[in-house]
Every structure is written in structure tokens, then in C-alpha cells.
Amino acid sequence: MIMELNMSSDTPIYVQLRNQIVLGIGRGELDLGEQLPTVRQMAADVGVNTMTVNKAYTALKNEGYIEIDRRHGAKVSEKIDLTGEFIEKLEEDLLLLIAESNVKGMEKNEFLKMCGDIFDDMNGLKGVII
Amino acid sequence: MMYFEIFMSVFLSGVFYLVFLLFAKRHGNMILGITLPAENFESKEVLDFVRDYKKILNLTSLVMFILLVGVGFIFKDTWSLPIVLIIFFIAMFFMWRVGVKYMNLLYDYKKANNLVVGSQKKITIDTVASSMQGKQTISVWWYLIPTAISSIPFIRSLTSERFNQVIPLYVSLLPFVLSGIFYLTSLTLKRSKTKVISKDSNINILANKVYQKGWSFAFFATALITSSWMSLMMNLTYINPASNLFQVILVIMFLFSIIGIFVGAQLKIGKQLEEIEVLSKESKLLFDEDVYWLKGYYDNPNDKRILVDERVGMGMTLNMGNVYGKIIASVIYTLLAILLIGLFGTFYMVEKSSFNLYQQGDTFYTEAPFYKTSFNENEIVNVRLINDLPAGSRTNGFGLPSIDLGNYFLHGYGKSKVYVYRNKPPFVIIELKEKTVLINGKTEEETLRIYERVRGHANNY
Are the Cβ atoms of A45 and B305 closer than 8 angstroms? Predict the structure, then answer.
């Protein structure tokens, strides 16, 4: 998977790294079970401290997207479950998004169509087990 | 002496010319430090820039060569070496500035033709190629070969007292140390940044494999040649401590071998990367980092790394856009200046010093910077005046254009303390029970005074 990080963005690098990996899984660019670069190599490629990469990988591990093995490094989880905790967070995020869209004049159908189009583009979602 | 100066002039000029010529050679999609699409390499403007740069390089190399040879003939003392180095560094700085000028001209051409692409503040990662980074270097077990070769002089020095007298244990460890340095340097390949030139991971993997394998093999070859050459030289020195033409030829062959390996690796890897560039045409990523190199060094405040890969070739360089990079560079240059000033100051002090031998009571003392010795009159076996210096090799000390000072192993005499002005015969040779002292003065009168002072105490009288 090719991913881009913007070094001058206000979004912290570890958040960008986390988001790019999640997007990669969603788009099917990262397969389930696929090996990820080691923390040290990723840090060398991005040009940041290993702690920054560790932070991103730890967040991904806690959210269930990746598994970390001491010997083999990090890889995309074979099975990514939908948890109650995630559903709660999703509702909170959607609340804000929907409020913002509606306040700015976006209709419900328009919003749902946009969500549907983005969903359809995500090739990787077929492999996810609910 | 004249041949040595000509050789050094040719060697330094040759290295200078090659280093800056490589800058003008196409390396993948880069020339004169600027990346270009493949079809633009044959454009008139680009070819003109390269031709003009090479003209300046040819002229500078020729002028430098003439000056270096001239210095060798004019300055016969210690000053010749610092002057040679000053000329060399001035020439390097001048050609570096010429390189920066042409790099900027080429970048202006690139902008004028709308060839600058991509965002300069983004980092691109290929997770597949990155996962394979560091696994494409040659196996560490290959380094057992230079290690085994390096152990030969070490084992001989450890087990043979005669060998140890000519090649002390700490000297015999040098092949190990140098091979180890090349091995450790090759390890930096495993941690280098993954090259990402295409949207196709297979092409990125191939490019990184070519780079890693090529350079790791170059470092192994260097370690092998260094250990073989040093072991051979140490054994030859033991057999015949006198320097001879064959050993000088071996030194020249060694230097050219090492240069050949690195230049060859650079050219071969560059050619292979060029071919990969052609393959990647359809899936090429569009970004470039040229703007960070326009000052002649890497300057990117958005890049948090202190050390980055060199633009051309192998190795690392400091990111001068990073405050720590600037601090480290300042410290390195300061230390280098102190070292050079200290070194040449020491050489100058030794050059201007006087050697003397005086007596206090029944003990004789030598007077010289850094290397003093003393001996009792009862230790003297023989004292002679000789006109030709005996052959030998220096264990440690100073071998300046007109002075030999320090601990030597002299053919026919063994372990010796040497205090001579090489071009001012005669020389007083004092054979003691445990060692030999070889000394003379700045003038023939001084030498004869030293001789008279000591000859009456020789046991053969």
C-alpha cells in the first residue's frame, strides 16, 4: 500500500499514520493478515522517532485493527470485530457530522447517498467479519 | 621523492576529478542533483548545462594538478603537506559551488518547463517495500572470510616473538578493525529509508533490492581487499622490513582497488536504477525533493530526521534544516579544524626541533620532542659513523620529508631509537645491549660532536 503523510499538517503524524492504515484496510489496499513494516523501519521511512510510530501501532492494536507479535512485528488482524465500544464512538462522531451537514443545508438523502458511494468504494470491507 | 610527489598529485587530482564527474553522470532519473523525466535528459538545455559543468571541472582539475606538482618541487619540508591539503580543499569548495550553481540552473529549467511535480511537504511510504527493507543485503556469514584473513597477522604476532618485534600486537589488529568498520557501515543499509519511486510495490522492491545488494556487496569486497592487503603487507614487512618498489606498487594497487569498487558500484547501481525507472513509467509517483538540495546540502525543516540518505551514491548526510543537524555539523568542523591545526603544529614543531645527546654522570640522554631515551655507558657495545641510513620500518613516530624520529626496526640492528635529519649525513650509530640509537645533528659539526661525546665509552675501545 502506498500512503502519504503530510509533515506540515496540524494533524499529528501518529494520527495520520493510524488513519492511513485504517483507510488502507478499508480500501482493500492492506489485506487481512498482511505484514506491516517494523516500528524501526516505519520510523526511518517517515523520519520520526520510534515512539511516534509505537503510539500509532498501539492505538491500532487497541482498536483491533492490527496485532503485534514480538518476533514477527505488526500485521493486520485476520479478524476485525465490530465492538459495542466502537458503535458508541461511531454514533458520537455521526451525531456531529450529521449536525454539521444539516446545519449547512445538506438533505438526508444527499448525506445517505454520499455515505453509500464511499461505502461502495471501500473494496476491503468485503473481508471484514461482523 | 619526486616520484612520490607526482604520484600524490595524480592520485588527489584523479580522486577529485572522479568525484565531481560522477555528479554529472545520470543516476537513475537524476543528473547534476536534479530529477528529470526520462525524455528531458537529451534536451539541448540539459546537455549544455552538463557540457559547461564538465568544461569547468576539466580546467579546475588541470590547474589543481599543476599546482600540486609545483608545491611538491618548491616546498621540500613539512609545509608541503598542509599546502597540498589547502589547495585540495579550495578546489573542492570551488567545484562544490560550481555544482550548486548548475543544480540551480537546472532546477530553473525544470520550473520553466513545468516539470516540478508533487507536494514537497508529503512523505510517501510503500508498506510492502518497507516490510522487506534490510532483508536484501548479503549475509553476515560472508564476513567470516575477511575475518579469517585478518587473523593471520594477529595469530603470528601472538605466537612469534620475532614477528611481534616487527609487527606489534596492536598493529596486527588493524585488519580486524578496518574490516569491522566496513561491516558496521554496511549495517546502516538495513536501516536506510526505503526508496519509493512508483505506485507499483514490485518496482519499489526491485529498486531497493538493487541498491541494498549492490552496496552491501561493495562493502564486503572492500573489507576482503583491505584484510588481504594488510595481511600481505604485514607479512612482507616481516620478511623484509625495508620498503621496496614491490610494496609501493601494492599500496598503489590497493588504493586504486578501493576507489574502483566504490566508483564501479555507484555506476552499476545507477545504471540498474535507470532501467527500473523506465519500467516504472506507467506507475511513476509524482513528487520530488530537489528543492531541499538546492543549497548543495540537505535542508528540510519539515523533515525531523537528523541524518538522511545521500542524494547521490551511498552514505548519510546531515539535515541542515534540523537544529541538531546544524549543531553536529558545527562540532564536526570545529573538531576537524582543531585536529588539523594540532597535527600540523606538531609536525612543524618536530621539524624545527634539534636533536642532541648529552651526558650526566655515567648516563647518556637523548634530547628530542616526544621520544626521549637514556642509556648507561656500560650498555654501549659499539659506536660508528655511517654515511647511509640502514633500511627499516617505523613502529611509531614521525617520518617527515627531512626527519625520521621515533621507534624503528632497522635491518641488521633490530629495535632502534631514531633521531635523524635524513639529508644531513653522517649519522652516529650507537649499538647498545638491548637496542640501537641512530642520531645526527643539523650540521656535520654537531654530528661529529655527538660522536666524540660517546665513542670513548664503547666497550670495543
Answer: no
